[in-house]
Amino acid sequence: MARPLDHAKRAEILDAVVRYIAERGLADLSLRPLAAALGTSSRMLIYYFGTKEELLVQALATHRPDLTAVFAEVHDAAALRERLWDFWRANTTGSGAVSVRVMLQVLGAACAPHGPYAGYADKATAAFVTALTAGLRALNPDDEPDVVATVLVSGLRGILQDRLITGDTERTDRAARRLIDHTIR
Predict the structure, then answer these.
(1) How is 84-117 classified by DSSP, letter by letter?
(2) Which residues are CB-contacts of 136 (< 8 A; sequence separation ≥ 6)?
(3) Residue 136 and residue 149: Cα distance in Å, rounded?
(4) How confident is the model at residue 28 (pLDDT cuts 50, 70, 90)?
(5) Could you report the per-residue pLDDT of 109-157, keeping only the tens digit for each?
(6) What are the residues whose beta carbons fall under 8 Å from the beta carbon of 14, sequence distance 6 or more?
(7) Three-state SS for 63?
(8) DSSP class of residue 2?
(9) CA gap 155, 60 in Å, rounded
(10) Do 85 and 177 meet the contact criterion of CB atoms below 8 Å apart?
(11) Which distant-in-sequence residues (6+ apart) come within 8 Å of 46 by Cβ?
């Protein structure tokens, strides 16, 4: 008889996977060294998650905020700008920054033809654009809210990538603020 899943252990592993990849990178990710660093075996990781790719997808899913809630009940442009700015700050510091570092690596890997993360990356991007579009639509439905959301999501992602590459927090904070302030009117 198969051993039942230990949900607490599973949650602990998912959290540790994101930290591991943020520190070491996705490009050379291998189950054996990952398992050793997590204090488990590659066999147990496969038992819990099936594949290395599914492990990473589930780990990132546990770190994704409820984007619908982030942009819900925004009644004016100033409130939406502040909500986005708060979201920016939450994702550039602490555990949010760790998740973002891994997410950007996954998005890059998803660009490869037949990449194992393409489905996840598509869903993650769509979730962000859809949630932000709903918030924008409530403010001004005639201003192509899906296009404005795409500009913001893609622009902020690019600025995040710049920040991770250059380490220039001051300039990238100013750039993110400008993008948010000039895009949401």
Answers:
(1) HHHHHHHTTSHHHHHHHHHHHHHHHHHTSTT-TT
(2) 80, 143, 145, 148, 149, 184
(3) 8
(4) confident
(5) 999 888 889 999 999 999 999 999 999 998 988 889 999 999 999 999 9
(6) 55, 58, 59, 62
(7) helix
(8) P
(9) 21
(10) yes
(11) 31
This prediction's pTM: 0.87
Distance CA 20, CA 34 (A): 7
- For the chain, give me the number of helices (H) and strands (E)? 10, 0
Residue whose entry in the numeric block shows the structure tokens 């998912």: 14
**3 state SS for 146-183:** HHHHHHHHHHHHHHHHHHHHHCCHHHHHHHHHHHHHHH
Structure tokens at 42: 């590659």
Q: Are 35 and 44 in contact (CB under 8 A)?
A: yes
Q: Which residue has the tokens 């589930």?
A: 58
Give the Cα separation of 38 and 142 in Å (integer).
Answer: 50
Burial tier of 120 (Cβ tally within 10 Å: 0-12, 13-18, 19+): buried
Instruction: Report which secondary-structure segment, H or E, holds 50.
Output: none
* Residue 38 tokens, joined: 């997590």
Q: How far apart are CA 155 and CA 100, in angstroms?
A: 14
